[in-house]
Amino acid sequence: MEKILFKPHKQLQNQNLVKADLKGINLANACLRNSDLTFADLENANLSGADLTGCNLKCANLKGADLTNAILDNADLSYSQLNKANLAGIHARNAKFQNCHLNSANLEKAYLSHADFTQAALNNANLKGANLKHAIFQQAFLTGANLTDANLAEANLCDASLVATEFEMACFYNAQYNSKTLFPQNFDPQQRKMVFLQRNDITLADLLDILNHISKHSQRYLGMGLVAKYWKASQPDVNWCKQFTIDEKGNIAVNGNKNQYLDDFQIQWYRMWVKNYFKLCSHVINNFEDVIYNPLESECCHNRLLVYAYA
């Protein structure tokens, strides 16, 4: 790694800092919006108050870093190392923390609404008073974490481990869990107004199959350009839906494990997306969903998502 020196408070938007050696650097209150810090070494760096909006921090080393009150909205910190980092008071709406290591990290009073912590390790992390509304903790490890007075309303805790976690005064209203969510002894999720999700046998591959069949038959009537435009315009503004990409021909793709099962909420987002799409198409051809139903039914009769689309 090349050692890089910066002046304090310098404006550093859109910088290419891939694999940069920034260990121990003082970037307090610096503006690094939309910079690429993939694999950067920021161990023990001072990033307090820094603006890291939209930054790519994938696989970055931030062990022991000071990020108090930093802005991390829409930043990607997946696979990064944040063990024992201080993230108290950060604003990280829609931030990605998938597979991130946050063991013993301080996230007290952090704003993490809609953040994605899928498969992240937050063992013994301090999340006191954190806003975690709509956050995703699927398959995350929060053993021994402190969630006192945290807001977990409508968060996804399916397959998460919350053993020995402190929950005093925490809000779990409409938070989702399943049979594999591990809670502390004597914790009653129903009493906390949580929602139990049954596991479906519908996979992400099934979802892509039906979406692309809808696209194929739509193209016959609307052309590729309009199909792509309408899929993008109808896409719900939630993290789970945003992971799907639509090319110029209207073909839909997604990264990740195609064999993963969908939960009830994901199926509802799919239904909303398809119904919004049909509504836009019907501005051109009345009752568009009925026009393409027969060819869809003949090709996708085995796919239960076809029924959900027309329910």
Topology summary:
Elements: E1 176-177, E2 195-196, H1 204-234, H2 239-242, E3 245-246, E4 252-253, H3 264-281, H4 288-291, H5 293-300, H6 304-310
What does this structure look like?
- There is one protein chain.
- The chain has 311 residues and is an all-alpha fold.
- It has helices at 204-234, 239-242, 264-281, 288-291, 293-300, 304-310, and strands at 176-177, 195-196, 245-246, 252-253.
- The protein is globular.
Distance between the termini: 56 Å
Assign a percent range to the helix content: 10-25%
Strand order of the largest sheet: 1-2
Mean pLDDT: 92
Oligomer: single chain
Query: What sequence of helices (H) and strands (E) makes up the elements?
Result: EEHHEEHHHH
Uncertain runs are none
Alpha-beta classification? mainly alpha
DSSP helical segment count? 6
Quickly list its features.
311 residues, 3% strand, 4 strands, two-stranded parallel ribbon, two-stranded antiparallel sheet, mainly alpha, single chain
